[in-house]
Design goal:
CATH class of the largest domain: Alpha Beta
Structural class: alpha/beta
Shape: elongated
Helix content: 25-40%
Distance between the termini: 51 Å
Number of domains: 2
CATH superfamily of the largest domain: SPOUT methyltransferase, trefoil knot domain
CATH architecture of the largest domain: 3-Layer(aba) Sandwich
Length: 247
């Protein structure tokens, strides 16, 4: 059974200030919790239904987390969680500090400038994972990585992609590799010569890449349009651009 104090803690972790204060965040649903077991995240508590515990008892023992489990009913988990579909398992996990990445040979690092929508950030993390991107560097005004909506939208990829935050002008000004930026008025990405090792900067849909970061872009690229749409969702655009780099 979930105690009143535990329920209070779970609900408080919906707020960024409480996640910062406690150093904890929520992971909800079977898929996302399963990804935790193969990651370096530290799990504090797992709240799960009897059905989930019985179905996964061997896995939970093998992963050494059986002692962290508190049994709860479907209704308790629905009241505790922030997701409509979360009705079997929820975990409280320690946040971790990720060092700013030093780019390696043949590595692409994704840089996000002012991407404030949690759903977009979560989807970008999922897309990055698909294309083998290990590091994403976010501006301070991006959505909080530990927002429950970001974790949910990543579909488990949050456990494999390293997210760090930095002053982008300071970080990018130290780099010697090419810095590509997505702009409406850039070179057609289908015709551009794309480096194997580079930074790829994506801006928000409403503001684009900020002026200070734009000064550091070495190669402006664009996705050519063949129809009448004014713009692309930033997560979709990220996928298209990464596909061209990987091609």
């Amino acid at each position: 059974m979930i105690s009143k104090n535990q329920l209070k803690l779970i609900h408080s972790l919906e707020q960024k200030k409480q996640r910062k204060k406690t150093g904890l965040f929520l992971v909800q649903g079977e898929k996302n919790v399963a990804e935790l077991f193969n990651s370096d995240f530290v799990i504090k508590h797992i709240f799960a239904t009897a059905a989930y515990i019985n179905k996964n008892s061997t896995l939970l023992r093998d992963k050494g987390v059986i002692n962290l489990i508190i049994e709860a009913t479907d209704d308790e988990l629905k009241k505790a969680g922030t997701l409509v579909s979360n009705n079997s398992v929820l975990a409280i996990v320690e946040c971790k500090t990720t060092e700013l990445p030093v780019i390696r040979g043949n590595e692409l690092i994704l840089v996000l400038d002012q991407v404030g929508d949690p759903g977009n950030l979560g989807t970008i993390i999922r897309v990055a994972d698909w294309y083998g991107i290990e590091h994403i560097v976010c501006s301070p005004d991006c959505a909080d990585f530990y927002n429950p909506k970001v974790i949910a939208a990543s579909m488990g990829s949050f456990a494999r992609v390293n997210i760090s935050h930095a002053d982008l002008t300071a970080y990018l000004s130290m780099q010697t590799k090419p810095i590509y930026g997505a702009f409406l008025a850039g070179q057609d990405i289908h015709q551009a010569e794309l480096a194997n090792s580079a930074f790829i900067v994506m801006g928000s849909e409403s503001h684009g890449i900020s002026a200070n970061v734009e000064k550091l872009i070495t190669d402006k690229i664009t996705i050519p349009s063949f129809g009448q749409a004014e713009s692309l969702n930033v997560a979709m655009a990220t996928g298209i651009i990464l596909d061209n780099f990987k091609r």
